[in-house]
Amino acid sequence: MDCEPSVDNAPVPPTLIPYLGVRHRSCPTIPAAINERPMDSLEEAILERLRFEIEMSGGTIPGLQAVTPERKVEAAGSVEAVGSVEGARSVEATGPAPAPRNRTETEKATLDVTEIADSSELSPYDRIAALIPADSPLRDFQTLAAVEEWVAKTELIELDKTRLNPVFGVGNPDADLMVIGEAPGANEDEQGEPFVGRAGQLLNDILAAIKFARSDVYIANILKSRPTKNRNPTPYEVEAHIPILYKQIALIRPRILLCVGKVAGNSLLGNTLSLSAMRGDFQDFHGLPTVVTFHPAALLRNPEWKRPTWEDVKRLKARYDELVGSQTEAR
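The structure corresponding to this sequence follows.
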């Protein structure tokens, strides 16, 4: 039987039905999250549902903010919608920006979304650190060693229970170049170090071709635990582990990033673009130039992709020299 969707006996406009929940196509009903509290008006019910949607998914609601839905940022006890532009995660805010002022480290750790958008005041590393959830212990750590110790003893997802070893990261803690992959494989899980085995050796060769030793850079993954059967990480797993990477970037303070593989690029930049769409130009991650290229394991299976990878890393090296200088030429 068809029924007229309503709240407090007021008819619901068809365009708002999706935000009220639908148990049957012809009979929308109010979800339990709304029914538990009395509503004085249709407007209040709808607004409550919109708040519920934002809090549960971190997304945005049409008409409230004209940006692409993206990962939420929780700060100072509030949740706001965060958007992405051209595939790179950035934060847009409405209303006047706060007046610049000096901040303590504690204040920087609790910035709200509007303040994060005030890029004239914050460094890329402050903006990236602000992406870490406000209630995460990661915000309080001041060294990589402290973060690594916490990762080793903390189970955030099921994979953390089944891993042989956490794969935190390796390399120069003051590196100007940071290499980011998607997740550990079997060899990495056994040794507790990212990019070992044949793919790791090829990565070393790629770095050597642009005059970097493995020890010059810092290498880490989006996930710190091996996915079963080397599958791609799930969105839930990425969401749980990527704050660790944010903290690593904030502490290491690299000048430029290299993402190897589509999954690493999508996860860091918060987009669903193809690898070809992310390659060929620099992406921007909160002020840090980012190059996305093929994963070394993919190059082992498809040697014809080595040439475009070479073009990508040459472009990265040229930008690196602009940012840091040409002192690496003497190595």
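Confidence is low (pLDDT under 50) at residues 1-10, 12-39, 54-111.
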